[in-house]
């Protein structure tokens, strides 16, 4: 299905997307607009260099040789895996010890993560649709910035400058998180990294011809957990998978929504991730008219410290032990395939369940035309809004002690954005 979608021309994608009948479960559009915040004022007149659409994500190693560097960056990030004062010592130690094991896992899924391929494809196809539905902000130029793998945020920013953005010329860029549900450890970390490289590469930029400082004007799509297009894409994939079960058993199949877990230290600090994951699950189930029993569980826990649960693999084992063998796994926090779906869910959870014919996983969003159109719709709403980021993005967690987080949030909230420019 994924490979077939990749071959669809843009015209077909647009046609398929236009014919899709969204049935949103909440008044999502209204709520999304309330979440997009911080209007800006001062008009800027300058030559249009287009709009850079920058997808933010964790990333993954494309080859086995990249696994070590990927893990090293990951365990060095205190926003994602807080190790306290021993971060600089324990991070490299843990990554070095885990590298051989993780290399074997990537070897089992083809020798690398497909997340770069999918991210670049999704962003390119979204930009093609945006050029049609938002000509006033065209051309839309696709970029991908990964937090722990190539292309890194630093590489992306240097490419932006080389492509004519900034350097006294201004230009607009949208940082579009590919984590639909916000967490300080994912979207927050990516925005902190983006802010860091903005300060390093543009912090001392000189004035431009129009009197402004000539730096890139950034705005942020920082969360979209109940966007109707996202909900519809998930719901359709679930319906397709349920259709594989005999009709007499179908309504009793248990839907297990699986999201990436978080350390409880992050959750207890006030991170909004659990609530936003729950909002997505609720919206999808309402779109499905609560047709099946369901639960939310979490995967990818690392280390001995307490993490958000229950764990996905344990949940599957316990349900099978109770006699419930018809289970459908839904990776609800991911927008494409990567090691968490292809190895953890497919090979560990399902492969080790002993019931691969009744324990199944829905297709990931990948090149789904409904999902691609949803990305374009969300981007169009944001471009037209004249808003820099959501009200939520400006709010720090009650237990936040990070000055970098405070500075990053202040920077993005203070960006000057004009609707349709």
TrEMBL record:
Any GO BP annotation: heme biosynthetic process
Pfam families reported for this sequence: Ferrochelatase
Main location: mitochondrion
Catalysed reactions, as listed in the record: heme b + 2 H(+) = protoporphyrin IX + Fe(2+)
Keyword set includes Lyase: yes
UniProt topology in membrane: Peripheral membrane protein
Keywords of the record: Heme biosynthesis, Iron, Lyase, Membrane, Mitochondrion, Mitochondrion inner membrane, Porphyrin biosynthesis, Transit peptide
Pathway as given in its UniProt record: Porphyrin-containing compound metabolism; protoheme biosynthesis; protoheme from protoporphyrin-IX: step 1/1
Membrane recorded as keyword: yes
Family of the protein in this entry: Belongs to the ferrochelatase family.
NCBIfam families listed in its UniProt record: hemH
The protein's role, per its UniProt record: Catalyzes the ferrous insertion into protoporphyrin IX.
Record-given protein name: Ferrochelatase
Natural source organism: Neurospora tetrasperma (strain FGSC 2508 / ATCC MYA-4615 / P0657)
């Amino acid at each position: 299905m994924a490979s077939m979608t990749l071959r669809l021309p843009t015209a077909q994608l647009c046609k398929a997307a236009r014919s899709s009948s969204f049935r949103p479960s909440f008044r999502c559009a209204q709520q999304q607009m309330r979440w997009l915040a911080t209007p800006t004022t001062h008009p800027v007149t300058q030559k249009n260099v287009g709009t850079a659409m920058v997808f933010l994500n964790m990333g993954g190693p494309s080859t086995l040789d990249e696994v070590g560097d990927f893990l090293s960056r990951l365990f060095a990030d205190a926003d994602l895996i807080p190790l306290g004062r021993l971060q600089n010592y324990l991070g490299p130690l843990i990554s070095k010890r885990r590298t051989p094991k993780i290399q074997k896992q990537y070897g089992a899924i083809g020798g690398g993560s497909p997340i770069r391929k999918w991210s670049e494809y999704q962003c390119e196809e979204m930009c093609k649709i945006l050029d049609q539905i938002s000509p006033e902000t065209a051309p839309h130029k696709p970029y991908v910035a990964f937090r722990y793998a190539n292309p890194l945020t630093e590489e992306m920013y240097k490419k932006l400058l080389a492509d004519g953005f900034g350097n006294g010329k201004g230009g607009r860029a949208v940082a579009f998180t590919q984590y639909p549900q916000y967490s300080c450890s994912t979207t927050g970390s990516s925005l902190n990294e983006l802010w860091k490289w903005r300060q390093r590469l543009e912090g001392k930029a000189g004035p431009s011809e129009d009197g402004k400082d000539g730096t890139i004007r950034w705005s942020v799509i920082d969360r979209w957990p109940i966007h109707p297009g996202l909900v519809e894409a998930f719901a359709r994939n679930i319906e397709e998978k349920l259709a594989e079960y005999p009709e007499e058993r179908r309504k009793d199949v248990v839907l297990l929504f699986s999201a990436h877990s978080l350390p409880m230290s992050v959750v207890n600090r006030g991170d909004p991730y659990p609530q936003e994951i729950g909002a997505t699950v609720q919206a999808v189930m309402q779109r499905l008219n609560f047709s099946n029993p369901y639960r939310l569980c979490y995967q990818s826990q690392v280390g001995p410290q307490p993490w958000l649960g229950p764990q996905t693999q344990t949940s599957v084992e316990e349900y099978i032990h109770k006699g419930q063998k018809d289970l459908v796994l839904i990776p609800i926090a991911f927008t494409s395939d990567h090691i968490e779906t292809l190895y953890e869910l497919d090979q560990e959870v399902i492969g080790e369940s002993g019931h691969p014919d009744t324990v199944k996983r829905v297709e990931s969003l990948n090149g789904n035309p409904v999902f691609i159109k949803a990305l374009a719709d969300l981007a169009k709403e944001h471009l037209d809004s004249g808003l820099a980021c959501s009200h939520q993005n400006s709010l720090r967690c009650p237990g936040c002690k990070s000055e970098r987080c405070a500075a990053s949030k202040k920077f993005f909230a203070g960006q000057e954005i004009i609707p349709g420019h």
